[in-house]
Amino acid sequence: MADCNQCLLRDTFWLNQLAVGGQGTVAWVGGETNVRRRLLEMGFCNGTCVEMLRRAPLGDPIEFRLRGYCVSLRDEQARHIRVMTA
Amino acid sequence: MPACCQQPPLRVLPKAPLTVALAGNPNSGKTTIFNALTGLRQKVANYPGVTVEKKSGRCRLPDGRFVEIVDLPGAYSLVSQSPDERVTMEVLRGLRAETPAPDVIVIVVDASNLQRNLYLLSQVIELGKPVVLALNMIDVARRRGMDLSAEKLQQELGVAVVSIIGHKRRGIAELKEAIVHAKKPVVPDWLANSRHLHQADSDPMRTDIESRYHWIEQVTARSRGDGQAQNAGSSPSLSERVDAILIHKIWGLLIFAVVMSLLFVTIFWLAQPIMQWIQDGVQWTGGRVAAHLPRGPMRDLATDGVIAGVGAVVAFVPQIALLFIFLAILEDSGYLARAAFLMDRLLRRVGLHGKSFIPLLSSFACAIPGIMATRTIENRKDRLATILIAPFMGCSARLPVYTLLIGTFFAARGAGVQSGIMLAVYAAGVLAAAGTAWCFRRTLLKGSTDAFIMELPTYKLPQVSEIARQVWVNTSEFLTKAGTVIFCMSVLLWALTYYGASQKYLGHLEASGAPANVVAAERMNHSLAGQFGHFIEPGLRPLGFDWKMGVGLVSAFAAREVFVSTMGIVYSTGDVEDGHGADLSKAMLADRYPDGRRVWNGPVAVSLLVWFVLAMQCMSTLAVVRRETGGWGWPIFMLIYMNALAYVVCLFIFQVSRWVG
Predict the structure, then answer these.
(1) What residues make up the domain containing A68?
(2) Which of B530, B563, B550, B484 is nearest to B312 (CA)?
(3) Span B564-576, mean pLDDT?
C-alpha cells in the first residue's frame, strides 16, 4: 500500500527535517498501525499543511501547528511522516 | 385533600429517566460545561475493571425532567485504544452494563480548534443517537479572528449547534433546551456509502480518516459567517506568543525551574506547619479522650490506635490538597503540557514520559501525593512505570532516619562529609529510580513509548471554582478510598507493637515502680512486632541488622520516621523530639552483642541507610497504589521487588564493607 507510493515521494522529506518556521504538506504517513492511526486522526492527512514551530530546549520533542492547533511529536514520530515543500 | 385533586399533578415523570452523555476531545472545556449543567449534584466513581474515573450528575431540563449527565473521559476518536477512549466508545455504544446507553449525546467542541474536534463528531453521528453540538469557547475563536456562524454550521452538519462560553456559563440554558429537542442526525451520504466503498480500498484506514477530514474541511469552509473570511490561525495567537517565552531555550527552562521550585517548596515546607497543627490536634484529642477513660489496653487502643490512626490519614491532607491546587492550576492553564514538552527528552532516556516529572518531584516530599499526581499521565504503561519508581525518591519521612544515622555514625567526620553522604543517599534514590524504570520499560512494561503525540492546548486562565472543585474531589476521595485502608493498617501496626507481651509481667513491672520508658521498652520488646523482629533476625544478620532494627523496620511501615521513635522506645531513651536524640545516639553506640561486638557501626549504618533508600516499607504508599491501579496486584509486586532489591544491595554492601574494613 503505502510503500508503492515511495517512488512518487522523491521530492519529499521527513517531517522532523523541517526547519523552525518551515512549512510542508503531508504526503505520506507511515508507522505502526496504532501510531499511524493516531497521527491521521490528529489531522496529519495527505495535503494538510504543517508548520514546524520549535524544538524543545533539549532538542526533542518538536512542536508543530496544523489545522489551527499545536501538537508535539517526538523526533521518532515525526519520522513517520513525509512532507512536500508547501 | 380536594385542592390536590382539582389540579393536575405539577410534574409527572413522563418517561424513564434520560441519560445524557457528554463527550469531547481533551481540552475542549467539557468539564466546565458538565459542572455548569450539574452544579453540585455530582458523583465520582470508577468504571469497573478500569482505572478510569466516572463522573455523573443530575440536571433539570426546562421541561421539568431530571436527566442523568455522564461526563465521559476526553477522547480524540472512538477507534483508538487508550483506556479513556475505550470507555468513551463503550458508553456511547451502550456496551457497558453499569452505564445505561445514552439517550442524547452532547459533543463538546473547542470552536477555536474546530477541525480536529469535529473528527469525533463525524464518528458519533454514525451511532444513530440524537446529538447536540456544544460549540464551546466561541469567544476565543472570535478573538483569534475565526469567522464562524453557528447557524450555518448547524445547517451543514445536520445537528443542533449551541454556542457556549463555558467559563462564563453562557449558553447553558440554550444547551438544556437543545437537549430536550435533540434529534437523530441525518448521516451524510458519503458516510453512509463509505462502508462498501472502503472494501475495495488498499488502505481503508487512511481513506476513512481522510474522507472524514475532507468532509470537515468542506463543512467548516461553508460555515464562515458574513464577515471577511479569514484563514484560521494565520496570525500567531496570544498562546503562541506566550509559548515563545515559556518554552524558550533559556527563559523556558528558567521559568520551569522557578515553577517547580515553587511547587516543591509548597508541598515540602508550606505543608509542614499545617501537618504539625493536625498532629497537635490529634494529640490533644487523644489526651482529652484518655482523660475520660480508665487506664488500660482499651484506653491505649482508643488513643494510640484509633485516634492516632485517624491522625495518620489526615496528616496527608495538607500535602495532597496543596499539590492538587498546584496541579489544577498547571493543568487548567495549559502549562502542564509545556512542562512535559520541556522534560520529555530527559525522562524518555529511562523510558518515562515528560509528564512523569511532576509526580516524581512531588515524591521527594511524599510518595502519596506524588503517586496521585500520576493521574495526569494518560498512557497506562508510562503511568505504571512512574508509580512503580516514585517511592525511590527520598521522601521527607526518611529525613529523620537519615539525620539520626548520619549524625550518629559520621559525626566525627565533619559537616562536609555528612552533607556529602546525605546528598549521596538522595542521589542513590534517583539512580535506583532511573535504573528500575529503564528495566521495567524493557521487560514488564515493554511497548509503545510511541504514544507521545501530545496536544499543546491554548493557554487559559484557570477558574478558582474549578480548582476548588478538583482539590475537594481528590482530597475527599483520598480520605474515603485510600484513607480507610491506611487507617486499618495503622491500627493493625499499632496492635502489633502493643500486644504480645504478658499483661501480668508489665503490670508487675509497673507495680515495682519501673519508669514508664522501661515499661514501654519491655512492652515493645515482647510485642508481636518484637517477636517478629527476633524471628526475622537470622535473615537480617547478613545485612548487619539485629532484632531491634527488625522491630524498627516493622514499625516503620506506619511511616518511615517511626523508625526513630521506635528506636527511642527500644533503647528506652525517651522521645527524640523532646531533645533525647543525643541519648539515643549514645545508647546505639554503646549497644553490644553478647560476644562484645558493637551492634552499630559504620557498615551497619550504611547498610541501613541503603535499606531506607530502596525498601518499600510504607503502608500508605501501598494503599494509594492499590487505589490508583485498581487492585492489590501492583502494590504487592512493588512490595516484593523493592524489598528484594534492597535486600540484595544491602547484603552486597555490608558484606563487602566488612571484608574491606
Answers:
(1) 2-85
(2) B484
(3) 79
CATH number of residue A18's parent domain? 2.30.30.90
Rounded Cα distance between B483 and B497, Å, is: 21
Please report which confidence band the pLDDT of residue B577 belongs to, taking 50, 70 and 90 as the band edges. low
d(CA B31, CA B39): 11
**Taking CA atoms, what residue in B is nearest to A79?**
B450
Q: How many domains does chain B have?
A: 1
Is residue B99 within 8 A of residue B54, CB to CB? The reply is yes
Cα–Cα distance between B517 and A21 in angstroms, integer? 73
Collect all residues with Cβ–Cβ distance below 8 Å to B350 and sequence separation of at least 6.
B434, B435, B437, B438, B441
**A-chain residues within 8 Å CB-CB of B244?**
54
The answer to whether residue B372 sits within a structural domain is no
Minimum Cα–Cα distance from A34: chain B residue: B80
Per CB-CB distance under 8 Å, the chain B contacts of A1 are: 202-203
Strands (E), B537-580: none
CA angle B145, B146, B151 (to 5 degrees): 140
B301-312 per-position pLDDT tens digit:
888 888 888 888
Q: Is residue B134 part of a domain?
A: yes
pLDDT of residue B327: 87
Nearest to A43 among B115, B448, B454 (CB): B115
Residues of B in contact with A59 (CB under 8 A): 345
Half-sphere exposure of B209 (CA within 13 A, CB side): 23
What ipTM does the predicted assembly reach?
0.90
Task: Give the closest-approach CA distance of A39 to chain B in angstroms.
Answer: 8
Q: In this structure, what CATH number is given to the domain that contains residue B181?
A: 3.40.50.300
Written as nine digits, the cell of B221 is: 469552509
Is B56 in contact with B71 (CB distance < 8 Å)?
yes
**Range ranked top by mean pLDDT from B115-119, B143-147, B394-398:** B115-119
Smallest Cα distance from B222 to chain A, Å: 16
Residue B118 to residue B133: CA distance in whole angstroms:
9
Facing B452 at nearest CB: one of A1, A63, A77? A77
Mention every residue, 6+ apart, whose C-beta is less than 8 A from residue B92.
B21, B23, B72, B78, B102, B105, B124, B127, B129
pLDDT, tens digit (0-9, with 9 covering 90-100), for B610-644: 999 999 999 999 999 998 888 899 999 999 999 99
Residue B450 lies in a domain: no
Neighbours of B594 (CB within 10 A): 5
Residue-number span of the structural domain to which B19 is assigned: 2-222
Indicate the helix (H) or strand (E) that contains B162: strand B160-163
Residue of A nearest to B241 (CA): A53
Confirm if B404 and B576 have CB atoms less than 8 A apart.
yes
Contact B452 A67 (CB under 8 A): no
Contact B202 A63 (CB under 8 A): no
β-strand B104-110 against B131-136: which pairing, if any?
parallel
d(CA B264, CA B275): 16
Closest C-alpha among B344, B416, B319, B376 to residue B628: B376
Pairing of strands B18-24, B66-71: parallel
Chain A residues touching residue B115 (CB < 8 angstroms):
43, 67-68
Q: Do A57 and B206 touch (CB under 8 A)?
A: no
Which residues in chain B are contacts of A63 at CB distance < 8 A? 243, 247, 341, 456
Find where cell 497521527 sits. Answer: A39
User: Does residue B189 form part of some domain?
Assistant: yes
pLDDT digits (tens, 9 = 90+) for B410-449: 888 888 898 999 999 999 999 999 999 999 988 888 765 5
Per-residue pLDDT, averaged over B329-352, amounts to 91
For chain A, positions 45-64, list CB contacts with chain B under 8 A: 45-46, 48, 53-54, 56-61, 63
What total of structural domains would you count in chain A? 1
